[in-house]
Amino acid sequence: MFEDHAASARQTVTTVFDPQRASEADWDRALACWRLRHAEDHPHGPVPADADTRHAVLRHDPLHVVHRVLAAGPDGEWVGSLNASFRREGTPEHEAFAPFVDAWGGVLRAHQRRGVASTLLRALLALMNAHGKSIATFRTHRPEGHAFLQAIGAVEKHRSVENRMRFAGLDWQALARWRSDGFAPAHGLRADVHAGRVPFERLATLIAPLSQLLGDAPTGKLERPPMLYDLEGYRSWYADLDQRGGDHFLVLLLDGDEVAAVCDANWTPRLPDRMYQNLTAVARRWRGKGLAKGVKAAMLQLVREHHPEVTLAVTSNAEVNAPMLAINRQLGFEAHRHDGLYQIGTEGLTAFLSTRPPFSPRHEAAEARS
């Protein structure tokens, strides 16, 4: 994450990275920077292969536009990056998304406290002003990231925790009871289970009810657009799964056509030892009946049957979501990291940057070219 408490950025030049037009030399420099940054931010986790990072950067997102800015130090090597994503015009609910931009990035530790982060924030402010964005959202889990975001005047609005659980510690007999007590027959519900892919015609009927359940998730004081699923997003994701491998698992409990409970997860061959559990949710009128336990137990069994090589489950939860955190603790999930979501507006960014050293002529010229 960013850290920047000193000095000017007179020797820093920013460049917009266009993945479709970048030369192989620029790709090599960008990948080297991103690889080092990931290793610094996640020192105990696997570092994505350069080929996977390149694929992710080149992949078209039908719902979002991503702008990437890289900062070069005096020797010409890229030492920091800023990424900014916002909703594409013409996509569903675009007006509700219009004020918001998600931003992430940082500066290599050896180059921190030299004004590089301020330089990247200037690029973010220029982008926000050019596209009419007024609120930037950042996520960080590193202490220096929290310190920097607080220093620039961003406000923490929400906290989440990434939890991890080893399959070796699961009590499968207890999970069988969870399925018996909280799954479909016990409540007169109908189960709808999908492994690998969900047919698009079925997904089309689920977009609205799943979006409603997702939108009911607690997000603290975060200012945000509606949290929505979109069929085009699924099409893009499934096309990528078809090309590179991977599975999507979905467990539903239905009362007629109403979704009473849901749990979905995904698996990728690039990290074959783990599953990523996504949304687990229960409609309000069905809460307190053990349905969340039922669908989570069914999901774990489903993944076990299809991918016995999985040894680790990964999920994220809002820190204020006490019921789900309690269920996860019973399963054996433990906190791996805590994320803070911060927001700052263009006025706040302008005020902070007014206290930083001005651009040098070299920097201004580079910024104009980008």
How would you characterize this protein structure?
This protein has 370 residues and is α+β, with helices and mostly antiparallel strands. It has two domains: 13-161 and 341-369, Gcn5-related N-acetyltransferase (GNAT) (Aminopeptidase), CATH 3.40.630.30; 171-331, Aminopeptidase (3-Layer(aba) Sandwich). It is 38% helix and 28% strand. It has helices at 24-41, 50-58, 94-97, 116-131, 143-152, 172-182, 200-215, 231-244, 291-306, 322-331, 346-353, 361-369; strands at 13-16, 64-72, 78-87, 100-107, 135-140, 155-166, 190-196, 247-255, 258-267, 274-282, 312-318, 334-345. A hairpin with a 6-residue loop joins strand 9 and strand 10 (274-282). The longest helix is centred in the first third of the chain and has 18 residues, at 24-41. The chain is globular and about 65 Å long.
SSE layout and pairing:
Layout: E1 13-16, H1 24-41, H2 50-58, E2 64-72, E3 78-87, H3 94-97, E4 100-107, H4 116-131, E5 135-140, H5 143-152, E6 155-166, H6 172-182, E7 190-196, H7 200-215, H8 231-244, E8 247-255, E9 258-267, E10 274-282, H9 291-306, E11 312-318, H10 322-331, E12 334-345, H11 346-353, H12 361-369
Parallel strand pairs: 4-5, 10-11
Antiparallel strand pairs: 1-2, 2-3, 3-4, 5-12, 6-11, 6-12, 7-8, 8-9, 9-10
